[in-house]
Amino acid sequence: MNAGCIEREALSAYADAESGPEERAGIESHLAACARCRARLEMITALKKAVAAAVVPAPAMPADLREKLLRMRMRSMGLWPRLLGFLREFSPRRRVMALSFSAAGLVLALWIFREDLPGIGSGEEELPVSVLLAAHGRYASTLPLSGAEGPASRVQDLLAEASDDL
Q: What is the pLDDT of residue 36?
């Protein structure tokens, strides 16, 4: 290489349009006079184009490896993130349908097993008569007519009869 010729790094930067305006002007004036540097610049430019054209895209990840990695990721996550990740795979319309069917299934299960759930049963639980009479007697004794003849005294009589029978 001649003493006045441009270095390879500077020519490469010029080819990539990475050199500054002053450096660019100096390189252009030198290229006008030096055939050797013009040939090196053409070779660098051709090499850059060939490398850019020969770049092969990275191969796609094998499907079994992708599945295995996804399973490993899912195992490391909690229940809710896994469920949300599963739902994100659906389109918005299918998400709404899946959630609607899930809600309908939950309501159906609650309706079917309503007899077994506390507080949701049919309301036909039977209470012993003595318990009902005792509760009513306590209530009737608080009425203002508790000492007089009337419904409260009749309840008192019924209570007395029930306690005699027990």
A: 93
Residues of the chain falling short of pLDDT 50:
146
Is 26 a domain residue?
Answer: yes
Range of the domain at 46: 8-54
Examine the domain organization and report whether 106 and 134 are in the same domain. no
In whole angstroms, give the CA distance from residue 37 to residue 31: 6
pLDDT score of 146: 47
Whether the CB-CB separation of 15 and 48 falls below 8 Å is answered with yes
Residue 3 maps to a domain: no
pLDDT at residue 44, rounded to an integer: 92
Do 73 and 107 share a domain, yes or no? yes
Q: Which of 36, 43, 39, 45 is nearest to 17 (CA)?
A: 45
- Domain tally for the chain? 3
Q: Is 120 part of any domain? A: no
DSSP-derived secondary structure for 14-73: HHTT-S-HHHHHHHHHHHHH-HHHHHHHHHHHHHHHHHHHHPPPPPPPPHHHHHHHHHHH
- Residue 117: inside a domain: no
CA distance 146 to 151: 8
